[in-house]
Design goal:
Layout: H1 12-23, E1 28-32, H2 34-44, H3 52-58, E2 70-74, H4 76-82, H5 105-112, E3 136-139, H6 142-153, E4 157-162, E5 171-174, H7 182-189, E6 199-202, H8 209-227, E7 228-238, H9 243-254, E8 259-266, E9 281-288, E10 298-299, H10 312-315, E11 318-323, E12 325-326, E13 339-341, E14 344-346, H11 352-359, E15 369-370, H12 374-382, E16 386-389, E17 392-398, E18 401-405, E19 413-417, E20 421-422, H13 436-447, H14 460-470, E21 478-481, H15 488-500, E22 505-510, H16 520-523, H17 529-547
Parallel strand pairs: 3-22, 4-7, 4-21, 21-22
Antiparallel strand pairs: 1-2, 5-6, 7-9, 8-9, 10-20, 11-17, 12-15, 13-14, 16-17, 18-19
Helix pairs in contact: 5-8, 6-8, 8-9, 14-15, 15-17
């Protein structure tokens, strides 16, 4: 059959728009096409009449007005802002765009492009094996650190995990300088102390409560995207206070089509935070840099694979949990047929009378049928994947073998031998093993935290699981965390390497926030948060040297 040839050539301009959309997803908007606008203009110039015939005609049913058509378009002003251009470009169309705005957004975007005159200073005396390690722990403002990392790490970070302030009304957030110099801004705002810290308590009574948080996170995510590899991933912990606003910002920065999943996580199994409903969970958002990103699937837990047959040497053990027939999906007549095994005939649902009625057309929308086609059943019988038990047909699920299609008519199926892999689900982190209670136990065991130095630290089990999802063991993948806190990410990377012999590297950034004099951390001898993180990393290294099950590569 001859294909119909389009009468128009490909649009080079539209191809360029799509390329720009991949580089700058936040600049993509939808605008009406010119044809719709011109047709509306024509309609308004039609003269009206007052004749009786015209009046009678107007009583006839009118066709609905044509809906305007839209196309993807690049907002040149947004593009200029991202490129650091100050001038306003004239817009060809005035249109209502879809987007998320707040007071100070333009200044926040511009801040990501501001050049800084700073550098990184090595600290040999506090390092562990400085000459050979590939890990980095940076003390300082994370916005400055992200800009400095662009010099050597642009497009090189495979995975980012951050746990930013949740903006609960009692959190500190960074107050970035937009219009003035950093020193001028901090002096006028009165927020810097004797150590030069520039973060303030963001009260929910403040007029710009949400805007301040959005302005803090936006430029950091923009810079983070530049650091990711083309197949990179970013995981972000957040709760209901800013969840929906963070989704809007991430959709803009990374592109809505690069959203992968939102994982709910249990924070505590018991207790309540309000009198209305106990809030016992938060979330982990997952976005990709592009459609090249792939999650690393882990081997499936096969502890319940306990049955064996003549194929055990090559296929491993198997289990029988699925019958071949089912009645939970839409009825399909092609999957409703008799199967003969060893002289015995089987029907879906095990009732010949009901089978006869279905064949006569008397079936429900959801009714009995087989899960496999007849060709697949014949192949499964021939190769030992089908068995009869208690007068029902079951299919075997092996540890290391499955049936796959070949796409050829002569031999449509084959047996594939490989370890069964588990597909992640959005409910993976609802187990108490990933709760804050577990985090407290881990810190207590590691740094003798008997008094609650970190009340809201994420558990190493959570971050290590995310590291396993977002990286591969032996590719030298870099994991970045620029809200390091107690350095959970460092421990997660080191323990992941110890578990599988990997060579992942971490880069952590943390502002040296002072520990309040009466806090548990200060009572334990820590002057700022960075001291806690560095001590934790040293403890983990020492622990792994003594107890690591596998050789840990990738630095000290």
């Amino acid at each position: 059959m001859v294909e119909k040839i389009a009468g128009q050539s490909a649009s080079l301009a539209q191809e360029q728009v799509e390329l720009l959309a991949q580089l700058f997803p936040s600049c993509v908007v939808e605008v009406p096409v010119n044809e719709a606008q011109s047709s509306e203009a024509t309609a308004t110039t039609t003269p009206t009449t007052t004749t009786a015939a015209a009046s009678q005609h107007q009583l006839q049913p009118q066709s609905p007005p044509a809906q305007p058509q839209f196309k993807r378009h690049i907002d040149l002003n947004k593009l200029a802002l991202l490129l650091g251009q100050k001038q306003e470009l004239p817009q060809a169309h005035a249109f209502e765009g879809f987007g998320f705005v707040w007071a100070g957004k333009r200044a926040a975007i511009a801040e990501a492009n501001q050049v800084i005159d700073k550098t990184l200073r090595p600290c040999l005396e506090e390092s562990v094996d400085f000459a050979h390690t590939h890990h980095l722990y940076l003390e300082g403002d994370n916005l400055d650190a992200l800009k400095l990392l662009l010099r050597g790490y642009s497009g090189a970070v495979k995975m980012i995990y951050i746990d930013p302030p949740y903006n609960t009304g009692s959190d500190f957030v960074y107050n970035d300088s937009f219009a003035q110099s950093q020193a001028e801004y901090e002096h006028l705002a009165g927020i810097s102390d004797e150590q030069g810290q520039r973060f303030v308590l963001n009260r929910n009574s403040d007029a710009r409560f949400h805007s301040k948080w959005c302005s803090m996170i936006q430029p950091r995510l923009m810079l983070a995207r530049q650091l990711l590899t083309p197949d990179g991933l970013i995981f972000i912990s957040i709760d209901d206070h800013e969840m929906h606003r963070l989704r809007c910002i991430c959709d803009e920065v990374f592109g809505e089509n690069n959203f992968i999943a939102c994982f709910p996580r249990v924070t505590k199994k018991s207790g309540k935070s309000t009198d209305a409903v106990a809030n016992n969970h938060d979330y982990v958002l997952l976005y990709a840099k592009s459609d090249q990103a792939q999650l690393s699937r882990q081997e499936q837990d096969t502890a319940d694979f306990k049955l064996s047959d003549e194929y055990v040497a090559t296929r491993g053990y198997y289990h029988l949990k699925q019958t071949l027939d089912y009645n939970s999906l839409g009825y399909n007549a092609s999957l409703d047929y008799p199967i003969e095994i060893a002289g015995q005939v089987f029907y879906p649902g095990s009732d010949p009378a009901l089978y006869a009625k279905r064949q006569a057309g008397q079936h429900a929308q959801r009714d009995w049928a087989w899960r496999w086609s007849k060709a697949l059943v014949d192949f499964g019988l021939e190769h030992g994947f089908v068995v009869v038990k208690n007068q029902r047909i079951y299919t075997k699920t092996y540890e290391r073998a499955s049936i796959v299609g070949t796409g050829t008519a002569a031999n449509p199926y084959r047996v594939e031998y490989k370890q069964r892999l588990r597909t992640p689900t959005t409910l993976d982190y609802t187990d108490n093993a990933y709760s804050n209670d577990n985090a407290k136990k881990g810190l207590k065991a590691l740094v003798a935290d008997n008094s609650g130095i970190f009340e809201y630290s994420k558990p190493c089990s959570l971050v290590q699981s995310l590291v396993n999802l977002g990286t591969t063991p032996h590719s030298g993948d870099i994991v970045l965390d620029f809200f390091s806190g107690s350095a959970t990410t460092a421990e997660a990377v080191l323990r992941a390497n110890a578990a599988d012999g990997g060579n992942r590297k971490f880069v952590l950034v943390q502002l040296p926030e002072r520990c309040e004099a009466k806090s548990a951390a200060a009572q334990a001898g820590f002057t700022n948060i960075c001291e806690i993180g560095k001590e934790r990393i040293r403890k983990v290294i020492a622990d792994l040297k003594n107890n690591a099950p596998k050789q840990c590569t990738g630095g000290g």
